[in-house]
Amino acid sequence: MKAAKPFRLLSYNIQLGLRTEHYGHYVTGAWRHALPARTRRANLLRMAAVMRGYDFVAIQEADAGSLRTGQLNLVEFLAEHAGFKYCGLTVTRDFAPFARFCLGYLSRTAPVHVVAHSLPGRVPGRGALEVDLDSEALGGLTMLVTHLSLGRDSRARQLGYLAAAARGRRAVLVGDMNAGAERLARHPALHVAGLRPLSPAPPTFPSWRPRRALDQVLLSPDLRALSAQTLPALLSDHLPLAVEVARAA
Hints:
globular, single chain, 6 helices, 249 residues, alpha+beta, Deoxyribonuclease I, Chain A, six-stranded mixed beta sheet
């Protein structure tokens, strides 16, 4: 019997489609976070090429179309140029018309159900996308795409919320967690839900000298990671994290 193909997952904090190659770019390129940048579209096309070979892409730090991106919806642009038929997003901070912060997903498989969640926290503006799929590789599957807070207390509450959403399901929690695998492994609600971080988790930040594994994929007990690696795409301040997922034996 032919083995089922693994589910190919990519998580990418795209930093608004802006290329960052050293810490100095945070200063010299700060204006690009507020105003249209001529180089953004070309860099997004390079990102789309990286995304093309995957079944599902979780995207953080995008914009749903505003003055700062020249009204370009970054998630829809990436879906079109990476060849994905299905995509979606949730706006987490809406400062229209100037900025519309969002996170999103691209999928080869039509979603069965999608829910946008506002996450708890001291400062509002963090969210998650719950995307239910009927995957050829994994069967029924819940993808939880998120970008968590920097603050430890808020992040702990957000992880508790997401663990409750994943409990009892075949689930993948994916995104920029702003926390390493060791801290995630100690979170009691994640432990109860059976969500396990990668071990070891490849470092993704900063992209030019990755030292911190901020981007994470956590799997429910009936799933396993066949491989996990960062891709050498110096296009954002994070490297993309690629994981192949299969059913647990």
